[in-house]
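Protein modeling request. Please complete all fields; requests missing the sequence field cannot be processed.
Requester role: graduate student
Desired output: 3D structure, token encoding
Chains: 1
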Amino acid sequence: MGLIHNQNNQNNQQSSQSIQSTQNIRNTRHIRAIALDLALLAGHLLLYPTGLRQERPPGTAPCLPMDGPAHRPVLLLHGFIDNRSVFLPLRRSLGRHGRQHIEALNYSPLLCDLRTAAALLGRHVEEICARTGHGQVDVIGHSLGGLIARYYAQRLGGDARVHTLVTLGAPHGGTRIAPLLSVHPLVRQMCPDSSVITELRQPAPDCRTRFIAFWSDADQLMIPKETARIDHPDVISQNIRVNGIGHLALAVHFSVAARIHGALDVADEAPADASSAVPDGSEASELPNVNRTSGQGSTYSQPKDGQMPFAEMLKTHGRLSLPRTAGYSRR
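Delivered output (331 residues):
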């Protein structure tokens, strides 16, 4: 009996040590993510003035290579009280990977309704399509920008124009940190019980846009963290979890950019009617590590030494290439 008792004590101690070790790793990861976000914020403040003006559209549409794929234009949409300068690293990375037509849209922080911002996005998308001759665009939205773009695609008929929407830390289910800043109407609309979030929960059986939602276990502005996932029974979506990357870093981190490249490339290769080819409740093929119901999604962790200075990130952005393991499922 004494031996059994001692063995049980040893097992309990080992279990406690394992739990403590796991918790220490998580705490360290979150501290590093916060430190990286603060460093990025300092660098971003220097670039912020360069993105204050609305971007001027190019005079003519860029010529597409005859021997390569004619990629859809990519439109970038920033988060709350931000501007297009936040996408400088991602924009350069997309350009290096063959995306020839990339634009960014600024929306005013003085806007009081997310729906107004979504309508503005719709007008800009129509202008891009008319100017370039493309019938559809891809949109990448960070934080509130992702929520605005989703509202446009899901509620305003924008699914006819938006082929793929990539969201980075967007509060799809509403975030509980929003009440701390609820003096602004746009922030109140990011709360879980807001009318906007309620509308996005409503049925959308005919929505054709493919949604790719990046969410992080270290995103301090998403409460709970899983609120940046898209969990809707009617939309074609993929949730990609990244580890140890903070809210601001989602828009600039090279590992996230690499996954965006792969996701957009897979979307380019998908047939035009792929949405109807995936029946409700089924799992898309060739989608390793994606679980529709458990909330885990496919996962990518940043390298251990992935905390790069902002200036270095601008230089080396986009050199990492990852396997094409993206896919979609209609939930």
